[in-house]
Amino acid sequence: MTDTQETHCEIHDDTPCTLGEGPLWHPLRGQLYWFDIIGRRLLTREGGQTRHWQFDEMCSAAGWVDEDRLLIASERRLFLFSLSDGSIETVTPLEADNPVTRSNDGRADPAGGFWIGTMGKEAEPGAGAIWRFYRGELRRLFPDITISNSICFAPDGSSAYFTDTKVARIMRVALDAEGWPQGAPELFLDCRDLGGSPDGSVVDAEGNLWNAQWGNWQVACYSPAGELLREVRVRGAHASCPAFGGEGLTDLYVTTAREALSEENLAASPDNGKTFVIRGVGRGQAEHRVIL
After folding, report:
1. Are 289 and 64 in contact (CB under 8 A)?
2. Is residue 88 pLDDT above 70, yes or no?
3. Does a structural domain hold residue 290?
4. Measuring CA to CA, which residue among 114, 148, 155 is closest to residue 282?
5. Which of 82, 78, 58 lies closest to 70 in space, CA to CA?
6. Is 13 among the residues known to form the active site?
7. Is residue 289 part of a domain?
8. pTM over 0.85
9. Which domain covers residue 227, as residue numbers?
């Protein structure tokens, strides 16, 4: 039975992001970090106030390395970022010779690898790819991706999920003991009749996949078999990515975007682009540490 939950969506942070993305609950710091890709900034909340760091390039996703450092994906590289002093250290180029693309959705896997998708800055067809960085090696996994999204992992590390939002099919691929794909990806969920588009996803501790649906004002939860279990309403039309956090990892944080909305839409719904939290909707798995 599908459970539609329309209440208890609170504003976590009221900063309007043009393209909010990449929410990460840091398990050692007990703190949410997220990006405004178009605004070229990383945001968090400290002491009841919003804090942000400004970059000179678009950044979209991160994994945690230790209490102080994040591995951040940008439009041309992966770099280490110190939360204490703001210092940056390039780890490896990422499509640095291709000015058309930037990074988009990404997440660390249970084996300690970091998956990151790229896409054309104007969503050029097939311009992007999905990559994995693991113990010093950056390897392209899946080419010809238009809008990379929904990178997330089964709790036992046996499989990974991803989508090309343009195609609107969420795929699942088996992983080996080191977290590398084995075999061809298979269809997990056909989203072509959603009314919106599949954007970022996260998998909870029970193996259910929670998908933010761009244009649909919601995050939808699916069982490992692809059965729709719950739809959680969000106060932003373009829900872009979810992440579990809070005490017990029971709160669902959701980034949203103002991009591609008309002035009339924004005036009617001024919460678009803010970052939200829905309390007590499930139990997430802790975000995995990136092994450099």
Report:
1. yes
2. yes
3. no
4. 155
5. 82
6. no
7. no
8. yes
9. 3-278
